[in-house]
Design goal:
heterodimer; A: mainly alpha; MetI-like fold; two-stranded antiparallel ribbon; 10 helices; globular; B: mainly alpha
Amino acid sequence: MALPLALAPLCLLLAWGIGGLPRLDLTALVWAPPGAFGVLGIAGGTALIAVIGGVVAGAFGEGVGLQVGLHGRSPFAISLLAGAPGVLIAFALLAGGLGFLRSLGLGPGSLLAGLGLGVATMPLVADGVAGQCRAWQDTYGAALALGLRPPAAARAIGGAVRRATVRLALAAAARIAGEAALVSVLVGGANGAPHLLRPSGSLAGTLLGELPQAPPGSAWVLALGGIALLLGILGGLTGLLGGDATHGL
Amino acid sequence: MGSSRGLARYRLAQALPWLLALGVLRGLGAPTGPPDLGALLASLLTATTAVAASAALGVGAGAALAFTREGRRWRAPLSMAAAIPSVVLGATVLRWLGDGLGVAPGIGLVAVGLALLCLPQTVLLAQESFARRWGAAEAALALGAQPVQAAEAVWGFVRHEVTGILLGVGGRALGEAALVALLAQGLLGHGRSALQAGSTLASALWYLEITGRVRDGRAFWPAVLLFGLAALAAAGAAWLTRERREVRPF
């Protein structure tokens, strides 16, 4: 019973989203329902946030993962960050650091949303890197035993670390694209073209903000189903790409 | 590996949780009234429902998958289901159960949504946990133990981990705002207070954020309670799921 229940949302999402995809105008910038369903602007905003967040999560996550995996340093502070809800991170950024952020010219926009989500998603990358450290250590030892010089062995391992980090950062970016509550607050919620420092839109924020307003059975609801399916596909890819590392997040 | 750059990023990342706590503390201001017990109760009720459903269905399914050959086949679809963004899951539940079957938005629908959100993740984590300890069961069976005794041996190993998993799942359910905001629509807006019974701590905080009232004293209690509960859940989950080593002093 548990397995059909766990997989039921996937089937329901497919049933809703497949009908909605043709309603989306993939070449238009303007999302102005109930008349215009151009997703290029909000999809671009989502991509911008995901790229910034993925880079931040990858950079921090690699450092944290290596220290935790190689030296067994206590990751409690990181666990605390991993357990912090997105709304709390948004609250800390907006309420606590608002004056400081504004003095840097950093109001609501894709940059702020990307930074916030990068920090929030960093534990995903750190967990994945830390989990693979033991295997890398074994490979390093084997390379030395086979007569390879330490710099050459380290270079070989460094390549594996970079590849794993990029893979996990991509998974983090896909996860970021589906985050709604934090994004909807930090990105500002406009429907124009994406912008780093000005309010713009995102797919998840649009879904969260507009579904309750859309009349049931309308083209608007179907178009939102298309957006939900796009996000669901991204999320599914995250699950497959990130593998075990993404389950704990 | 383990370079000074990695160490610097680790140190910087270690500072982030404290910056978060500092940001929350700086933004709190003075409370405008007593804590909203309705939002606290709704948070605890929905999180408990999600944990109970996950414990009843997810842990058993995870154990069954760990000990059967078919278990590996289910990992890919379950991984995909576990990675569905919460807003997408909330929208799907609202579309089919709310609009389709006429179930009224409210705490009941929120609890169903949260349970569906947490279930695949619990199954996968429980499966991993049980599969890691499969060796203990095999050793017990090889030594002539009955299957029930072998199951007890495995449970002895994984019970802390499973408790930690459920605590982590509960922490995620407590902090979920997007799904709650979608599935408790009737309880947010429409002239009602965001902090009245029915909305959870996370959704109440989110509502104050999107309406630009984060420095309003009404954000004090939801932020403090949510931070405290999330920190407790994260600390408990980290403690219980840590690698346990047998320490024999003599």
